């Protein structure tokens, strides 16, 4: 994997590009990163008088002896989707990095916080100035936490807490990365994912807010330097569908016209029934025109799968198929179904083996096949963008290829989903963001 897909970071998936950047602390403007700290003074930051200082090229809290908590707030405006990279050194007390938060009076900040404390306490997503008890600890070390729209909290352990906490070194400089996109927040230290959170809480979840550092007082000693911010995909559209599968059954969010899809261990599992003569099918009814679709996937014992986009009202094409991206361990195929493989006239001709040459001529320019090696048993991350008459595909943050073809620009899409061939393919963290006003949640 050569680069980090900003939206999703799955446990164990950390890119070489990310490691290179945080390793030498050089994040350039041409990479989209903005330096938030000049290494000399607190220009661009604001906190209580005397509570924060700069020494030896780092921001330090002074650990107020009266025990009062305070925050140092970055005055560059609110931030929505982002990647924040910085170095952190902890000596004593309790501190934190605040993101997507609300500023209150007297430099008090309420919202998401990544704990900065001793190694045995690292890996905590929590809500500073927590409005209700269930918001105090959102995800702890080694957990993938989720908060439902109604405030129900669940957590799945992806790694032993002590093993991920061991990545943080007390009294030393540590590389920290915080990524937020849509409802998902991720924290990494020294290239290790400590904790993840998906917050859909209708009452308290925040999609944007201020950045800040916390001083918990009582002699806290914590330092921050080499602070870089990248705002992610400001044109990525409006999230209209998201599913992390943190439940036991599919429910009514997905339609399963051809079995077998189910949820297992927090993942969507597709298993073909060879007796049916068709791959396993699942789809979600999400109307859109143009969109960015992101998801994680893993081949275990499956041959291939398709991400299929449909318009069930379109009668000029077989089964309403508009376009698709096909994934196998050895290749990726991008196809215009509407004016290509699934167009009614072409679909009928395809049934006649003697007309194969005619079919090939009609399909010219309607698909593209790109060789690509995907390791079985490993989680990969895909980003598929539909923009007018063009589909582009990224896997693990790397551009794989694109196709421009007339059928892709079909003005309405009624649903999207997966078709699985083979015994077992897993999916996770599926998200569709619409990039035009035709989307309906």
Give a topology summary.
Layout: H1 16-24, E1 34-35, E2 45-46, E3 52-55, E4 58-61, E5 70-74, E6 82-92, E7 95-103, E8 109-116, E9 125-128, E10 137-139, E11 143-147, E12 153-157, H2 161-165, E13 174-181, E14 184-189, E15 192-199, E16 210-215, E17 221-231, E18 238-243, E19 255-258, E20 261-264, E21 267-270, E22 280-284, E23 291-299, E24 302-310, E25 321-327, E26 331-336, H3 337-341, H4 344-350, H5 356-362, E27 367-371, E28 380-387, E29 390-395, E30 398-404, E31 415-422, E32 425-434
Parallel strand pairs: 11-15
Antiparallel strand pairs: 1-17, 2-5, 3-4, 4-17, 5-16, 6-13, 6-17, 7-8, 7-16, 8-9, 9-10, 11-12, 13-14, 14-15, 18-32, 19-22, 20-21, 21-32, 22-31, 23-28, 23-32, 24-25, 24-31, 25-26, 26-27, 28-29, 29-30
Helix amount, in percent?
Answer: under 10%
Supply the helix-strand structural class. mainly beta
Q: Which outline best applies?
A: elongated
Beta-strand residue fraction: over 45%
Please describe the biggest sheet, giving its number of strands, its sense, and whether it closes into a barrel: 10 strands, mixed
Task: Please provide a brief summary of the model.
7% of the residues lie in helices and 45% in strands. By secondary structure, it is mainly β.
